[in-house]
């Protein structure tokens, strides 16, 4: 799970020309959910967001108070593009959680955030909608958060992709190996004489 947390003077969400949500001073959270995220990552992110010390205290000392300490508002916006992986210059979103599953997960995240803080101080956008998010960044202050389990090592990702490519190559090799077996001399009475062709058909149907 990834989040971009911005300290704001104010922020709002507009859908179809209509403002559906707004906050004053507080945090605007853009949240990207990975297909690997679980309740553990959700709870980790809730704690981090609410305890992030990006506000000053009463004496003006910076980085001393959290949004809960100051009783400020939080505006959350679902942002699947945070799970983007660039392939050349083209964004790829296969690491983002599928829409239906992500909506349920996101609603659970909001519920946990409100339960840990104050429901009336936690606002959100409209999941899956085309939104205009208006953010007046205060500072500017922008913090990137990432849950431990959601961290993607580029080298590990490349390794996984290569493993997948090897699997695909193995699948394509099956028919050719069967073909070589078919081309070998066989006795007419050999009961395995037709097994190669049958193997080819099953391999070709394999997705």
Describe the structure.
This protein has five helices and eight strands, in the order βββααβββαββαα. The strands form two sheets. Strands 1, 2, 3, 4, 7 and 8 form a six-stranded mixed sheet that branches. The longest helix is centred in the last third of the chain and has 30 residues, at 154-183. α1 (39-51) packs across α3 (99-116) and α4 (154-183) runs antiparallel to α5. The chain is globular. It has a single domain, classed as D-tyrosyl-trna(Tyr) Deacylase, Chain: A. It is of the alpha/beta class and 207 residues long. The protein is 37% helix and 28% strand. It comes from Nothoprocta pentlandii. This is D-aminoacyl-tRNA deacylase. One of its GO terms (molecular function) is tRNA binding. Residues 148-207 are annotated as: Disordered. It is an enzyme of class 3 (hydrolase).
Topology of this structure?
Blueprint: E1 2-15, E2 18-23, E3 26-32, H1 39-51, H2 67-70, E4 73-78, E5 85-87, E6 90-92, H3 99-116, E7 122-124, E8 131-146, H4 154-183, H5 195-205
Parallel strand pairs: 3-4, 4-7
Antiparallel strand pairs: 1-2, 1-3, 1-8, 5-6
InterPro entries: Daa-tRNA_deacyls_DTD, DTD-like_sf
GO molecular function: D-tyrosyl-tRNA(Tyr) deacylase activity; tRNA binding
Region (Disordered): 148-207
């Amino acid at each position: 799970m990834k989040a971009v947390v911005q300290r704001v003077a104010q922020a709002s969400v507009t859908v179809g020309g209509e403002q559906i949500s707004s906050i004053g001073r507080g945090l605007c959270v853009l949240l990207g959910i990975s297909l690997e995220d679980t309740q553990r990552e959700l709870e980790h992110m809730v704690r981090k967001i609410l305890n992030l010390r990006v506000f000053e205290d009463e004496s003006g000392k910076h980085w001393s108070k959290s949004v809960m300490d100051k009783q400020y508002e939080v505006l959350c916006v679902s942002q699947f593009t945070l799970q983007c992986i660039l392939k050349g210059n083209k964004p790829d979103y296969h690491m983002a959680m599928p829409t239906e599953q992500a909506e349920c997960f996101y609603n659970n995240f909001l519920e946990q955030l409100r339960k840990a803080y104050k429901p009336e101080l936690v606002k959100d956008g409209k999941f899956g909608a085309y939104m205009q998010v208006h953010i007046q960044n205060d500072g500017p202050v922008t913090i990137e958060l990432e849950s431990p389990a959601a961290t993607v090592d580029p080298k590990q990702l490349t390794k996984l992709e290569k493993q997948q490519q090897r699997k695909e190559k193995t699948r394509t090799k099956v028919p050719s190996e069967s073909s070589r077996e078919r081309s070998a001399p066989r006795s007419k009475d050999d009961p395995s004489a037709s097994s190669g062709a049958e193997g080819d058909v099953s391999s070709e149907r394999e997705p």
